[in-house]
Recover the amino acids of this structure.
């Protein structure tokens, strides 16, 4: 039985925690009036004018733990929260920020004071008016939730003031270029104090109250979550076509852990949308009448990482040789079923601040050059074609998660690296066990995925020295890299920030800290009746107000 | 008899103590720290440490166990680490669904298995017998998930007779009855096959006895011979195995429940283990252990009624 209950592979858990730490240096402080954004999203063909009515049935592969945004890191919880709630600002399809509950905002020149003006006439599902007091309450609750796994994302907040019902002012302890990212993040949704107080520890389990396009109706554990349209909703963000009430009467989320069962329900037409269709099933389903699979850019990269302190991979030449010996095209077709592009960089080309020079700097497939580097490093061909040095064989222990794409990727890597005399010794882990093992310091090589909507979430998060032992599993600690990363968060000058990010990207390619493998595409299954599908690279179907069911 | 039952019931806490210690140890041996799972694998170490402290996971194991058992004895199974929901609520929501599924499967089992076994025994050596035994062999050897997917494909997808997965409602509603059909059949098939084979061999043994020959000699109809003299006496081993199967049905539906998205205790346990949700794992395992012990006791008691030769001291 495949992947019972848990989202496929590595990526997921990474995604979970990353969703909390949205980042991109602040855009030039706008009073955000807006025009239609250019779409970098993935849109499925839509036919005709939207029709109203019908209940949209969505299949998830696990229960989303809790709908209390301050104590969860679950990706699926974030997808449900996005339907019930609004943020102050939204991240548009092109990565820019758009007004949501805040109609405009202003950032002080020292980058420390953020002032938001809120929309009028916004109401919670329970009927109460939304005001600046709710914003203050929500962020203070998040900061003060002791066991919140995500509150570090807003730690720079010094104080929050609500001078009048329509104004809220955040004062930061120091400039924090990724503050707007945090406000648009999955966990920064607006709560209603009255409801939270009344529900106590049942908040997010039996009760949820927001200002979003769908109201929480019920949640039968491990079975389904039922949401109904919020008919009063007129304050939708300008980034969506439909800013009024949703087209469908409601959303029903069915929890079906087993892949094959979920797909059988989908093919039978009992569910309209399926998140994360297993890669191996995409081809078959795409030729099945009545359904189709939307493949979308999700800013995700799978990579082989090295612990740069473990010999012999503490020698950059050995890491570079491995990088040169990998034929990524073979991996994309052989392991990812063609659902992705060969990756030579950690950031995807569509990530903001992607360094255009990466393409030149990153190594291309060249086994001769790889062999030469290993010769230079003192590793000469030995028995069985495996290179040796001082009676030691050149072996790469590779830790991977099963089930997951990494299983197939590792098999292909074994063959490819054998050609330059590197023996791969693959060890498979259940995913929770992998994450425990990979922070032990004993890891040498490992395959995992990362996903993020801005460079901070990849570069700072994974390569900053204080992020050891995890997520900096590379034992990578260079003072100059740390300096660039620190500067990228506080420097008010956009160009300086761009230079910082470029320096870091250049340096990690030079040092061959990782061997990026595949920029992996996401998969969404939809039946033909579902229209208006536009998948956001980091927010999936976001608030689902543009979706409708064709009768 | 009352004495015997009481004694067995008094042993229950001992069994549960053993089970709880074992589960506790195993959970703490398995790699993967629940605080890390909650925080997400990439959370800063301070966050993980704070959560560990909050959950008491930084204390010595014996102390953690004592604290846990102290609460359990007061009827508090704790809260799920992931959902923060009371474990007892989670388990009690799931338990009726598991019971429903197991009881339907248990009801199907003898109804199908015993007649099949009797027919095979009566027609011993004929193609019918061989055919039945071949099919039952398949029923025993096919992995549950393969069977489940096969049923789903045929009855759920092609014929659209039953829902493919999910819980449709309580048994007494039409939707509920339809939704239980496929998982119950899947769950029962192994038991039916085992039991049919057993019934056949028990019957064959009995049918060779002298009193059966006598019964036939005095001109009794073959049906009466088979049922009154044969089956009644062949029933004892059948009940033993039926009981064991029932206990298994109650506790072992992990795969069936997961494949059919059936919200029972087995599926809850699978979720809990994957999430390293310690209190939830403990809670589900304890409940499963209690059921196992009680069903076994019920079977032992049932023997005494079926076979007057059995007496419990």
């Amino acid at each position: 039985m495949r992947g019972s209950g848990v989202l496929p592979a590595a990526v997921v858990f990474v995604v979970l925690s990353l969703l909390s730490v949205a980042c991109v240096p602040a855009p030039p402080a706008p009073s955000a009036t807006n025009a239609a954004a250019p779409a970098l999203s993935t849109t499925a063909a839509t036919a005709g004018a939207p029709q109203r009515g019908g209940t949209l049935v969505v299949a998830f592969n696990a229960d989303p733990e809790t709908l209390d945004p301050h104590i969860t890191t679950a990706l699926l919880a974030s997808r449900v929260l996005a339907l019930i709630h609004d943020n102050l600002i939204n991240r548009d399809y092109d990565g820019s920020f758009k007004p949501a509950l805040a109609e405009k905002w202003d950032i002080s020149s020292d980058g420390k004071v953020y002032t938001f003006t809120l929309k009028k006439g916004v109401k919670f599902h329970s009927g109460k008016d939304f005001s600046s007091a709710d914003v203050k309450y929500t962020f203070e609750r998040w900061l003060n939730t002791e066991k919140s796994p995500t509150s570090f994302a807003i730690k720079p907040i010094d104080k929050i003031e609500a001078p009048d019902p329509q104004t809220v002012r955040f004062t930061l302890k120091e400039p924090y270029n990724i503050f707007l990212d945090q406000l648009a993040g999955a966990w920064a949704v607006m709560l209603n104090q009255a409801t939270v107080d009344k529900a106590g520890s049942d908040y997010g389990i039996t009760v949820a109250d927001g200002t979003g396009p769908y109201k929480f109706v019920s949640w039968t554990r491990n079975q389904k979550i039922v949401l109904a349209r919020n008919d009063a909703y007129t304050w939708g963000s300008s980034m969506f076509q439909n800013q009024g009430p949703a087209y469908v009467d409601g959303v029903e989320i069915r929890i079906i852990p087993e892949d094959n069962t979920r797909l059988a329900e989908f093919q039978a037409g009992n569910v309209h949308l399926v998140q994360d269709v297993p890669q191996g099933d995409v081809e078959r389903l795409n030729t099945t009448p009545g359904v189709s699979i939307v493949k979308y850019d999700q800013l995700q990269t799978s990579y082989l990482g090295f612990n740069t302190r473990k010999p012999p991979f503490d020698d950059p030449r050995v890491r570079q040789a491995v990088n040169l010996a990998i034929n990524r095209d073979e991996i994309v077709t052989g392991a990812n079923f063609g659902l992705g592009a060969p990756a030579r960089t950690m950031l995807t080309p569509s990530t903001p601040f992607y360094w255009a020079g990466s393409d030149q700097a990153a190594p291309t497939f060249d086994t001769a050059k790889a062999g030469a580097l290993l010769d230079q490093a003192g590793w000469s061909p030995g028995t069985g074609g495996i290179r040796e040095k001082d009676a030691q064989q050149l072996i790469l222990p590779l830790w991977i998660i099963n089930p997951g794409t990494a299983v197939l990727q590792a098999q292909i890597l074994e063959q490819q690296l054998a050609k330059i005399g590197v023996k791969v010794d693959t060890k498979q882990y259940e995913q929770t066990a992998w994450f425990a093992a990979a922070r032990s310091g004993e890891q040498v090589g490992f395959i995992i995925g990362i996903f993020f909507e801005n460079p901070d979430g990849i570069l700072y998060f994974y390569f900053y020295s204080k992020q050891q032992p995890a997520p900096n599993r590379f034992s990578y600690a260079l003072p100059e890299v740390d300096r660039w990363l620190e500067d990228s968060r506080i420097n008010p000058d956009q160009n300086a920030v761009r230079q910082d990010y470029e320096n870091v990207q250049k340096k990690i390619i030079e040092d061959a800290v990782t061997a990026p493998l595949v920029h992996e595409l996401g998969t969404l299954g939809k039946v033909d009746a579902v229209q208006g599908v536009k998948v956001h690279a980091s927010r999936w179907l976001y608030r689902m107000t543009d979706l409708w069911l064709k009768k | 008899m009352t004495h015997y039952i009481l004694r067995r019931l008094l042993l229950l806490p001992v069994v549960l103590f053993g089970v709880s210690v074992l589960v506790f140890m195993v959970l703490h041996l398995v790699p993967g720290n629940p605080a890390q799972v909650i925080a997400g694998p990439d959370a800063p170490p301070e966050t993980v440490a704070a959560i560990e402290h909050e959950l008491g996971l930084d204390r010595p194991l014996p102390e953690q166990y004592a604290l846990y058992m102290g609460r359990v004895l007061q009827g508090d199974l704790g809260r799920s680490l992931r959902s923060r929901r009371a474990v007892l609520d989670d388990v009690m929501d799931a338990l009726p669904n598991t019971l429903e599924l197991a009881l339907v499967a248990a009801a199907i089992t003898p109804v199908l298995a015993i007649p099949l076994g009797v027919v095979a025994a009566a027609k011993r050596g004929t193609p019918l017998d061989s055919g039945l035994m071949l099919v039952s062999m398949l029923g025993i050897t096919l992995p549950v998930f393969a069977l489940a997917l096969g049923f789903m494909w045929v009855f759920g997808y092609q014929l659209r007779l039953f829902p493919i997965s999910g819980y449709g409602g309580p048994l007494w509603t039409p939707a509920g009855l339809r939704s239980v059909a496929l998982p119950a059949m899947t769950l029962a098939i192994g038991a039916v096959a085992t039991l049919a084979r057993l019934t056949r061999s028990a019957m064959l043994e009995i049918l060779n006895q002298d009193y059966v020959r006598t019964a036939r000699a005095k001109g009794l109809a073959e049906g009466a011979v088979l049922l009154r003299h044969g089956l009644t006496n062949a029933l004892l081993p059948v009940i033993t195995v039926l009981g064991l199967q029932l206990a298994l049905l109650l506790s072992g539906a992990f795969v069936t429940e997961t494949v059919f998205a059936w919200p029972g205790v087995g599926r809850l346990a699978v979720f809990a283990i994957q999430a390293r949700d310690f209190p939830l794992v403990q809670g589900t395992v304890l409940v499963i252990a209690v059921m196992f012990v009680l069903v076994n006791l019920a079977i032992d008691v049932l023997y005494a009624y079926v076979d007057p030769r059995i007496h419990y001291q």
